[in-house]
Amino acid sequence: MNPTSTMPTESKSSSRYTILDRETPRLKTILGRWESLLAMLFVVVFVANSIALPHFLDLVNLLDGTQNFSEKALIALPMALLIICREIDISVAGTLALSSVAMGLAKGAGFPAESLPVVALATGTACGFLNGVLVTRFALPSIVVTIGTVSLYRGLASVVLGDKAFTGYPQLMADWGQGYFFGIVPREFVVLLVCAALFAVLLHTTRWGRRIYAIGNNPEAARFSGIAVDRYRLALFMLTGAMAGLAAFLLTGRIGSTRPNIATGWELEVITMVILGGVSIAGGAGTIAGVMLAVLTMGTVTYGLSLANIPGIYMTIVVGVLLLVTIALPKLLRMRHARGA
Amino acid sequence: MSILKQREPLLAAMVVLLVVAVGLRAPAFLSAGSLANLVTDSTLLVMLALTQMLVIVTRGVDLSVASNLALSGMVAAMLGAHAPGLPLPLIVLAAVAVGLALGVVNGWLIGYLELPPIVVTLGTMSVYRGAVFVLSGGAWVSAHQMPAGFIAFPLDRLLGLPHLVWIAAATLAVMAWIARSTRFGRDLYAIGNAPQCAGYIGIPSHKRLPGTYALSGAVAGLCGYLWVARYAVAYTEIAYGFEFTVIAACVIGGVSIGGGVGTVLGAMLGALFLTVIGNALPVLQVSPFWQSALTGLVILVAVLINARGAGRRSRQILPLHGTGAPTERSAA
């Protein structure tokens, strides 16, 4: 059987159903996209803030405000890939704490300042590697594994720290954590934008990224079609760890110390960012653009609240309600639609 | 031999072994008072782990229990502080009602709107925690503001045992009954094992799930009062991060996060195990900072042990040729 001669005729005979690679975009579908809704929400929040708060539209302040979320967003990027891939990593904040402690230890041991980011990245990657090995090698659910490792990592960090804190980090770290490019754009924000661009390219234009979607949609089918699913999972866990290490480097540089309570509760904030960004918790769907829009929206709300002198904990309510409304509203509308029809 | 293969006897043996091992190093740990303390300390975790188990059995998870506990506890504490004349049962009832209401919100979102439990409870967790702050204005309610009877109740003794232990034992009995002998409980296992099949045979999961989360909420509310009264203080951050301890207790107890598997006894033993570790460290004069790291290790070891043999192998989608296939199938 010669495939080149038979295949075309076969496909021609079965072409009663034309399957387009991509639906032709219509205005309604474009507007109905999660990213468009988020973009509108972002604009609404931004405009509302600028009207309500006189000092909101100050470029210097606005750019400074990005530091509040840059580190979290850095972790949200690989987390989005993980969740698209049907996995999750609860241990990111623990990884961050341990990486920060590792830097403190390395600094105490007389490592040069330039090696500290390497130490942080290596620690983070090692933590991610352990998660990934447990998930892939032993076929354990990632949520259980990372609930275990978050205690482990944070516990180890607090064992090393005790009730002390590491301080006196070299200037290099403060430069990256608190410094600016062109005297106005925080370096952290630039790092975030660069990373976001890299992740977007990786996820949306490479074979690697397409395979992540394939795994998330159906891991077994992906495996049967020859994708080394476990290798991808392991790589993603290590990537998440590495990004948590990078976030540890920036955060430690920004606050200038490592304390036991560093980044507590971040795992849930990071996951909230990702979910709000339209990444499906069931896997297989989501975009980096959505995650970044969610990050910016949450950042704007936080910044506005802090300008209005509202305690940070109100922010948790706003974020929680935002999360619930954004996932419940489409469902409610659809149910009403179904009932009406 | 077969008894050793079951999870619960093994886990019970581990708990006993751990207690004895610690006792050998520090005999004070084995004194009646210390062991009674251990049981009392474990009660709240046991109760929360039991309802969490039911939730996890349905393939869900309730991350909002700790926030729910904090909010119900704060309501109870403020009622106690502002209306000292209020009879205690009414306060407890109020705490349970608040917890129940919060649980019903979760249940409605998850059961009727069919939203993913992890996302819903992640959201309500933040909202409930924030609500504690809004309600209390960020202030603490401390021991001297609460009525004496309010604080004393959990540790007051009835027939030689603290009320806490009685309440936990009652919860244990009720949960065991629900999980084993009621249609509601059996339905939960069916939903967890195969949600679609459960639907086909007529199990109304949109009614069962709200019930489960409501139960989880009500018990969290009860624990809220008990927590606040026991530690005689209420503030925004009480039980912060406790949801993970509760889930950890379930995981150690052999409750499968994939749903459909879990026993009341296992969840209780898991909670007991974690409490033993927590209480043993100070006795052994190990730095308390080790507790979290050890807990993490225990969770990992427990899931590794639980997963042994039950690993999800890649499924056979094409029939095997030869004689081996039918027997293997019946074994699985």
Question: If you consult CATH, what is the topology of chain A?
Answer: ABC transporter involved in vitamin B12 uptake, BtuC
* Greatest interface by residues involved: A-B, 50 and 52 residues
Q: Give the proportion of residues in helices of chain B.
A: over 70%
Strand residue percentage of chain A: under 5%
Poorly predicted parts of chain A: 1-13
Quaternary status of these chains?
A: heterodimer
SS content category of chain B: mainly alpha
Spatial shape of chain A:
globular
Shape by Cα distribution of chain B = globular
Count of helix runs of chain A: 16
What is the radius of gyration of chain A computed over CA atoms, rounded to a whole number of angstroms?
Answer: 22 Å
Give the helices and strands, then pairings.
The complex is a heterodimer of chains A (341) and B (332).
Chain A: H1 3-13, H2 27-32, H3 34-52, H4 59-65, H5 67-84, H6 92-108, H7 116-137, H8 142-161, E1 166-167, H9 171-178, E2 180-181, E3 185-186, H10 187-205, H11 207-217, H12 219-224, H13 229-255, E4 257-258, H14 266-276, H15 288-307, H16 312-340
Antiparallel strand pairs in A: 1-4, 2-3
Chain B: H1 2-5, H2 7-25, H3 32-57, H4 65-82, H5 88-112, H6 117-136, E1 141-142, H7 148-152, E2 157-158, E3 161-162, H8 163-181, H9 183-193, H10 195-200, H11 205-231, E4 233-234, H12 242-252, H13 264-283, H14 290-307, H15 324-331
Antiparallel strand pairs in B: 1-4, 2-3
Helix pairs in contact in B: 2-13, 3-8, 3-9, 3-11, 3-12, 3-13, 4-5, 4-6, 4-11, 5-6, 5-11, 8-9, 9-11, 12-13, 12-14, 13-14
Would you write up a description of this structure?
The complex is a heterodimer of chains A (341) and B (332). Chain A is an all-alpha fold and 341 residues long. Chain A has one domain (58-322): ABC transporter involved in vitamin B12 uptake, BtuC, CATH 1.10.3470.10. Chain A has helices spanning 3-13, 27-32, 34-52, 59-65, 67-84, 92-108, 116-137, 142-161, 171-178, 187-205, 207-217, 219-224, 229-255, 266-276, 288-307, 312-340; strands at 166-167, 180-181, 185-186, 257-258. In chain A, the strands form two sheets. Chain A has a two-stranded antiparallel ribbon. A two-stranded antiparallel sheet of chain A has the order 2-3. In chain A, strand 2 (180-181) and strand 3 form a beta hairpin. Chain A is globular, with a radius of gyration of 22 Å. The model of chain A is unreliable at 1-13 (pLDDT under 50). Chain B is an all-alpha fold and 332 residues long. Chain B has a single domain (2-308), classed as ABC transporter involved in vitamin B12 uptake, BtuC. Chain B has 15 helices and four strands. In chain B, strand 2 and strand 3 form a beta hairpin. In chain B, helix 4 packs across helix 11, helix 5 (88-112) packs antiparallel against helix 6 and helix 9 packs across helix 11. The longest helix of chain B has 27 residues, at 205-231. Chain B is globular and about 55 Å long. The two termini of chain B are 20 Å apart. Classes of the chains: A mainly alpha (341), B mainly alpha (332). Chains A and B meet through helix 8, helix 12, helix 14 and helix 16 of A and helix 6, helix 12 and helix 14 of B.
